[in-house]
Amino acid sequence: MRSLERYPLEDMASRVGTPFYFYDGDFLRASTARFANAALGPGSAARYAMKANSGHKILEVMRDAGMWIDAVSGNEVLRARRAGFPGGAEPPVILLTSDVFRDNALETVLRERVTPNVGSPGMLGELRAAGYRGPVAVRVNPGFGQGRVESTDTGGPSSKHGIWPDRLGEVRRQAKDAGLSITLLHAHVGTGPALLEFDTNVKRLVEFFRAFLPEFPEASAVSLGGGIPHPYRPGEAAYDPGSLRSLLERASRDLTAAARRPVRVEIEPGRFLVAGGAVLVTRVKDVKETRANERGPGHTFVMVDAGFCDLLRPALYGAYHEIEVLGARAAGPPEPLVVAGPLCESGDVFTRGEQELLEPRSMPRPEPGDLLALHDAGAYGASMSSNYLSIGRAAEVWWEQGRATLVARREALEDVLAPECDVPV
């Protein structure tokens, strides 16, 4: 969704206020369908990792494209059910992947009969004590994994996710004693910034699981997790989902041969499906400068009304989002600018690097009142937003077939205060 000229964003901003998330539903439907047609074939399935964005319109797109769901909380399961995804385990359309059971997660498993994907051995004991006797999945930490930065690694000794391989025999015996059948093995090792690292990691996981599958005679599926890269920076090459089809077909053949029974291969695209389908629209409130001194160089700060309470990724781990100046000044000469938000935190800056340092961005200088758009904000944007400083979450606007619809209103103070109470416990 690189070109924004055709959308009446200024008109939308005047109606719903800024900042707001803007989604192109036509783009999301077309790109998700294209992915499903290109990447999936016999013996494979895709679960949308709804932690990336659990909005009801996003879930509608995924449901219509035939995606299954990977949920991480009881409420995500219930949101998927409200969006029309079926419960039950035959087939296991919704998988609850969790490191521990929290809040209503265990209760939701029991009521909705969705398959739990256990990430710690103790979860099996909790399932047994609760009276659950259905199928389970087991998340394995294969001993390797990576992310775009070290803090996002999802496998290896520094990762909290999954069960270490030398505990799998104990887990298998524990499940058998509890009357639980392990029907799916799962690992998620993520990917780094290089385009084909995902393919390399998938191949490594297939080899890893080939050694373990014969020990799990009831396992009929293996999930290879997610991590398909998205090109956040201009000029970055895009991942071809067509190459994934042959990779998954080969994985299914290899795992089926190792297990001597049909094995379904699953993947979990999240970011890849939704990142490019949305922008965060924010208004410039001021432009100010600091002067160089012995502490460092001076900077020109473009102050906007969006902050890390709206889009956390740059402050959390230095994630890059292309920033576009909208309107007449978009054609002006570029200069190095730092784009920063309104929060009382030095980290409330959208132009940061992976080392958490300011990285001025070359762009035309806007003026107060102009709109900026932060691109590729569809994944881990709205879903990670917060009420920090008692600020209400931003509005969300959906564009489809030439029509704009408000699909999430801006939160008011009453929404922020709604959970507060004074009740004896």
CATH class of the largest domain: Alpha Beta
Shape: globular
Enumerate the spans where pLDDT stays under 50 for 5 or more consecutive residues: none
Structural class: alpha/beta
Q: What is the helix/strand order? A: HEHEHEHEHEHEHEHEHEHEEHEEEEEEH
Total of DSSP H or I helical runs spanning 4+ residues: 12
CATH architecture descriptor text of the largest domain: Alpha-Beta Barrel
Organism: Eiseniibacteriota bacterium
Catalytic activity: meso-2,6-diaminopimelate + H(+) = L-lysine + CO2
Domain Orn/DAP/Arg decarboxylase 2 N-terminal: 44-275
Function: Specifically catalyzes the decarboxylation of meso-diaminopimelate (meso-DAP) to L-lysine.
Characteristic terms for this protein:
425 residues, alpha/beta, TIM Barrel, Lyase, Ornithine Decarboxylase, Chain A, domain 1, nine-stranded mixed beta sheet, eight-stranded parallel barrel, 12 helices, globular, DAP_deCOOHase_LysA, amino-acid biosynthesis
